[in-house]
Design a protein that fits this description.
globular; Rossmann fold; eight-stranded mixed β-sheet; single chain; alpha/beta
Length: 280
């Protein structure tokens, strides 16, 4: 399993390295960024009216707008997991103000380089970008007031470990707002095994109930689904991976792909079970 997880990470890193070199328009033209599955143009949201929005940082890769729901206050320290070219980070900075701090984490060198160049061009001194793995976040414990992430957790093979890391870096009473892709029903095996659909978030998606259970197990409280939106994947895309009969079965079973924005908090205090106790 570990070897397979590493292969998936390398797949995602390779695809996103290509995407980092393209414009938003190129990514949308080629549907799935450097691939062809069509997920990004189906999922992406319009950031353009938000304070701090910078079009150079918007590669159209998200499936929601988590910063819009993240309850960011002036002076907060915000961590964006899978920060890409910096889109959510720059909006978060506008909300946190000059006295705030924003840290973007991404495992793709090309994305980090692009994000740093964007921040330097904008003259932002309180936004930084670090190369790192979401399953092993390069930050000290209790560092963040707020964590955001946009359509990235589905790219992480070990989601349990990733959310344990989110819990670790949040301060007590800190919270996250994360947009991601979840399922109603089960994906057909042909889609689960398709690499480019994994890179486009669909094949990595899990059931909504399983996703929320991971949050509970990680120790989070006050878990709230802030927004749900069904994602309609066109038949011509699905027919690349499914036979016409399989596609009919897929539809008859009522399977659905959804964009979900979910909020949760780290409890006010631990309860005596160790340094990162989650037994509350």
């Amino acid at each position: 399993m570990e070897n397979n997880n590493e292969k998936l990470k390398e797949l995602v890193k390779g695809e996103y390295s290509k995407i980092a070199l393209q414009t938003k328009e190129q990514n949308e033209t080629s549907c799935c960024g450097a691939g062809s599955c069509g997920t990004y143009t189906i999922m992406s949201e319009d950031y353009s009216a938000l304070p701090g929005y910078n079009p150079d940082a918007d590669l159209g890769l998200g499936c929601g707008i988590p910063v819009e729901f993240a309850k960011i206050k002036k002076g907060d320290t915000i961590v964006d997991l899978g920060s890409g070219a910096g889109n959510d980070c720059f909006v978060a900075r506008a909300l946190a103000g000059e006295e705030g701090e924003v840290i973007g984490i991404d495992m793709t060198e090309a994305m980090i380089e692009k994000a740093k160049a964007n921040a330097e061009k904008l003259g932002y001194k309180n936004v930084q970008f670090r190369l790192g793995d979401i399953e092993d976040i390069p930050l000290s414990s209790k560092r963040a007031d707020v964590v955001v992430s946009n359509c990235v957790m589905n790219l992480v093979p070990d989601k349990k470990k990733a959310f344990e890391e989110v819990f670790r870096i949040l301060k007590h009473n800190g919270h996250f707002s994360i947009s991601d892709v979840v399922l109603k029903g089960d994906l057909p095996e042909a889609i689960k095994k398709e690499a480019e659909l994994y890179a486009g978030c669909v094949a990595g998606a899990i059931k909504k109930s399983d996703y929320l259970e991971i949050l509970v197990d990680a120790g989070f409280v006050n878990i709230t689904v802030q927004k749900m939106k069904q994602i309609i994947i066109p038949d011509e895309i699905l027919l690349k991976y499914l036979s016409p009969n399989d596609l009919n079965t897929f539809k008859e079973k009522g399977m659905g792909v959804y964009s979900m924005t979910v909020y949760a908090e780290r409890p006010e205090k631990d309860c005596g079970c160790g340094p990162e106790a989650k037994c509350c």
